[in-house]
Amino acid sequence: MPDGEMAAGAFDIAVCKGIDVGEQERCHLLVGLDAAGTLPVYNYIQLVSQSMGLPYEDEYKEWKRAPDAAKEIIGAERIAKVGVEFYERAILPELKKRPALNK
């Protein structure tokens, strides 16, 4: 099954089950599970794009998966726009967070 069809199927199932897939911020709260390799997480825009056969990369997920490389991935210009201090004090710690999983 192509990725787009899988994404469309996942989207349809979520909607039928009454899952609110429109809140991208909620998906980003779960990205730590994806980054930890526990559960694949897709945000609404990613699901819709893939179901339409359009390419879409979730930049936040990429940053979260590789927090030590995030500064290079994001780029100095974008970090400068929010401020280096803000990036280091607020964004980077968030990117490094992983969920506490009961084992």
Can you characterise this structure?
The chain is mostly helical and 103 residues long. The protein has 2 domains: 1-57, no CATH class; 66-97, no CATH class. The protein has 7 helices and no strands. It has helices at residues 3-16, 24-35, 44-51, 59-65, 70-74, 76-82, 84-96. Helix 1 (3-16) packs across helix 3 (44-51), helix 2 runs parallel beside helix 4 and helix 6 crosses helix 7. The longest helix has 14 residues, at 3-16. The N and C termini lie far apart (32 Å). The model has no long low-confidence stretch (mean pLDDT 76).
What does the secondary structure layout of this molecule look like, with pairings?
Elements: H1 3-16, H2 24-35, H3 44-51, H4 59-65, H5 70-74, H6 76-82, H7 84-96
Helix pairs in contact: 1-3, 2-4, 6-7
Descriptive terms for the model:
0% strand; flat
Please tally the helical runs, counting DSSP H or I stretches of 4 or more residues: 7
Structural class: mainly alpha
Nearest-angstrom radius of gyration? 15 Å
Q: Quick one: overall form?
A: flat
Number of folding domains?
Answer: 2
Report the sheet-strand fraction.
under 5%
Overall pLDDT score: 76
Cα distance, first to last residue? 32 Å
